[in-house]
Amino acid sequence: xxxxxxxxxxxxxxxxxxxxxxxxxxxxxxxxxxxxxxxxxxxxxxxxxxxxxxxxxxxxxxxxxxxxxxxxxxxxxxxxxxxxxxxxxxxxxxxxxxxxxxxxxxxxxxxxxxxxxxxxxxxxxxxxxxxxxxxxxxxxxxxxxxxxxxxxxxxxxxxxxxxxxxxxxxxxxxxxxxxxxxxxxxxxxxxxxxxxxxxxxxxxxxxxxxxxxxxxxxxxxxxxxxxxxxxxxxxxxxxxxxxxxxxxxxxxxxxxxxxxxxxxxxxxxxxxxxxxxxxxxxxxxxxxxxxxxxxxxxxxxxxxxxxxxxxxxxxxxxxxxxxxxxxxxxxxxxxxxxxxxxxxxxxxxxxxxxxxxxxxxxxxxxxxxxxxxxxxxxxxxxxxxxxxxxxxxxxxxxxxxxxxxxxxxxxxxxxxxxxxxxxxxxxxxxxxxxxxxxxxxxxxxxxxxxxxxxxxxxxxxxxxxxxxxxxxxxxxx
Length: 477
Ligand code: ARG
Fold this sequence. Notes:
Layout lengths: L2 E2 L3 E2 L5 H8 L9 H7 L2 H4 L3 H17 L5 H20 L11 H13 L12 H37 L4 E6 L2 E7 H26 L1 E2 L15 H7 L4 E2 L3 H6 L2 H27 L7 E2 L18 H24 L13 H25 L1 E2 L1 H10 L4 H12 L3 H18 L8 H7 L13 H7 L8 H16 L2
Parallel strand pairs: 5-6
Antiparallel strand pairs: 1-2, 3-4, 7-8
Helix pairs in contact: 1-6, 4-5, 4-7, 4-9, 5-6, 7-8, 7-13, 7-19, 8-11, 11-12, 11-13, 12-13, 15-16
Bound molecules: arginine.
Arginine binds next to helix 7.
């Protein structure tokens, strides 16, 4: 075997790849290490459907514009169909020396149909090709993720309906703050997912311009019809600047940014699941489907799936940061650095899909413990704010003073080891003589939640309205 001074082993010559596609300028073979760093086929083979679809649209346009003859064009189209079948069935042989999916398809096309294959790459480049394929892939996965997020929202609505008036403590600083309803808590996540879907849809809108026909960077001298390819591939219109078209990866960054926020939302819910399912909280019981046992401690029921959803945000947001760093400072137009873009996006989509489906399953199958939730709401003096508000509203005491009086009442209840509502009127009057019987109307957690009827508030009547509005919104989609 020949040795290359600086690069170690030289790869065996590959007649299919280098010689057939771009070997004209070279007389020597690539080092193996060059092939290893250069190849992206292991990653970008996932673009094969989009690559073939875009090639078909391209060659149809070339035929329409009489740049490629009908005969050659038809032969290219049928060859492409065959290649798609081969890849889908697993019969296709991938070869690292052929670098990427675009070269694989073209090389195989030459094997199948011979000379006409050489006309496919007229008036395009891998630079506009890859940008087009990648946009199409992301677009398809935006639609898929949107669908599974919508399914998840539906389950959140069903559960919010089931638990509209189940009382639980609401927290700030993870300290019991005020009583809320479980339905209200679940609807908070409904709102988050709604924004997540909005971000995906914004990203899709901006992404939907077709780069194909920008060629390497400067456009082409062939009389192509870019509107025709854009339309054939379901893009809104062709991209307006060829340099921008081949060097832009905003769509991938926006997509990753949107997924980072979605996975962050799921990680917050996942953390609540972890906390709530612990024996200390005992707010919920996870179904067997979404918990696992310990190999050593028989009593345990671990929320592994929720913990992993909580962790996934690290990979997804990590991918976003990585791609930002890849793109930082790249001069126009295409640079090979950009080939690294796909791995982050593919990984993020895989992680996102798992996270959404797992979280959906967890929420769908868990059982909340009504009494534990209610006890926890009762036990943290969660109606203290209601008492302070009552002192202001009914007795016209200034809020700061009311806050002080309430603090003294909490201290007294703590000392008596009882709830605020169990303090006798005498006791309350020893703190503030103006307090009367009516105070007991507001000291219970039930009264507290039903009173929170401001728009967006936790009262079951308001939660019902929010669910109704949400259902309407979804019907109109
Ligand atoms: N595999 C490459 C990528 O994903 C395709 C574009 C290559 N273009 C080039 N001029 N080398 O970015």
